[in-house]
Amino acid sequence: MIGFLHALSVLACWLNDLTILYSLALSLLAIASWYFQHKACEASCIYLRYTPTDGWTVSFDGNEYFVVQIRPTTMVGRMLTVLHFSAENGHSTLVIFKDAMAANDYRRLIVALKISGYSQG
After folding, report:
1. What is the CA radius of gyration of the chain?
2. Per-residue pLDDT tens listing for the chain (121 residues)
3. Measured between alpha carbons, how far is residue 81 from residues 44, 62, 68, 70, 88 in Å?
4. DSSP letter, residue 95
5. Pair 120, 73: CB distance under 8 Å
6. 76 - beta bridge partners?
7. If you ran DSSP here, which 8-state letter would residue 81 be given?
8. Going by C-beta distance under 8 Å and a sequence separation of 6 or more, which residues neighbour residue 120?
């Protein structure tokens, strides 16, 4: 989704009445913004998994997983999932777009949330 919005901003740079120099400068700025956003997302990945023994767990570094409770305000959709969960340090919200995961992984997430009775969507 973020990549799509950046692509639209580059397109908007060229579909206006600015000079070529300004359009090029704004396009480069939008591309640089996408690049740094992409790198920041890679560095701050959140890992979510379900195991029969621990239930839902979350990791912020990929190594240590913390048990969380999925809140009933979680909303599941075909294109977007808004996951509310509680941990020892408070409540958090995680927005998951369909294109942020492999298609099978997103489908499994939706099924797991619906089967466990946590979805409103």
Report:
1. 19
2. 677 888 888 888 888 888 889 889 989 998 898 888 777 665 567 778 878 888 888 887 777 888 888 888 888 888 888 888 887 777 888 888 888 778 888 888 888 888 776 555 5
3. 18, 21, 17, 13, 22
4. E
5. yes
6. 81
7. E
8. 72, 73, 74, 75, 76
The tokens for 45 are 């990945």
- CA atoms of 17 and 104, how far apart (whole Å): 44
- Residue ranges in the chain assigned as alpha helix (H): 2-14, 20-43, 103-115
Listed by start position, the domains of the chain span 2-43, 47-115
Determine the 3-state secondary structure of 51 from DSSP. Answer: strand
The pTM for the full model equals 0.56
